[in-house]
Amino acid sequence: MATLIDSYAGANADSGYIAGADTSYFGQSFAIGSTSNNRITQVSFAAKKVGSPTGTMYCEIYTHSGTFGTNSVPTGSPLITSVGQDIADLNTVVAWVDSLFDNIPPICLDGSTNYCAVFKIAYTFRDASNYAVVYFDASSPTHNGNFSYYNGSWVAESGKDAVFYVYGDIAVTASPGTMADDSAVGTQAWSDVDNAKTNNTVYATAGSSGSTTHYLKATNFGFSIPAGATVGGIFVEVKRYSPGMGRSSDSVAKIVKGGTVGATDKSIVGYWDGEDTGVYFRYGASDDLWSETWSASDINSTDFGFVLSATVGAQTPSVDHIRITVYYTPTNSITGPFPTSRLDLL
Fold first, then answer.
1. To pair with 236 at 20 to 30 A between CA atoms, which of 6, 13, 108, 133?
2. What is the DSSP track for 129-143?
3. Which domains does the chain have, with CATH numbers?
4. Exposure string (b/e) for 268-292, b if CB count within 10 Å is 16 or more?
5. Does the predicted model carry a pTM greater than 0.90?
């Protein structure tokens, strides 16, 4: 399942640009349109091939600059790049090219910010008889964004809109409202547990060498996932370290559902960093359900959370912050099919 984030229907397409450079870029600014963050999963542009060009096609997502809808253009480096596709797979009649981001590390886009989706065509062979064409509306564009292309620098065209679809799921991140030392495992208690509520270089700690700690338990995250939403994944991040030599390591890292510690252990193999480098260590993923079945109410519960136990080395394990990101799809989302073939094109 996925949320339709923004689109401009293929039926609006009336013109095409020949992708004539060895590497050609065509962009469209779009809006997330949500107060939540979104993880992009698919972007579709309309294109076709003439003859038999070869190479690879991608979609890239950029931050935009300029005035949205007037002279908006991509800026900086790509925030995320899709899985590549073979240009030879293009149809010889205009069709959707569906660029997928499912296998890319998750990057959440800010719901209050506008972006540019860029269709990138990197040829290994093209000439005057073998090339790709990208489609747009040049006669009466009505999308709120605008089209752009790259010709040594980005050129905005306010009188054109690419036909496109952007899909994703919603991601919300929260910190715990409640921290606790839970003696269900281990022998060493955690001290100053509330320090793990925020990222402030003040730590929850536990000591003595050769022992295993209790659970450091984080709950009451205050999520408000809408009723009926489909939970797609749970991603936990922990900022932790163990100073000096003889460092600590994970013993247990598990999700908490309804106050009960889950069965799936996501412990990371290896010693904790010897200094606080500001890095969050990741447990789970945007598509990882921790071998559980989840409802919105499970996530919203004050008893939802995460536990961490450490094997203590010669130095004290220290946890600065725990946060959880939940990925979900609302009930009013597009569930498929995604636009494929020539569903609404000319």
1. 6
2. TBEEEEEEE-SS---
3. 3-171 (2.60.120), 175-329 (2.60.120)
4. eeebbbeeeeeeebebbbbbbbbee
5. no
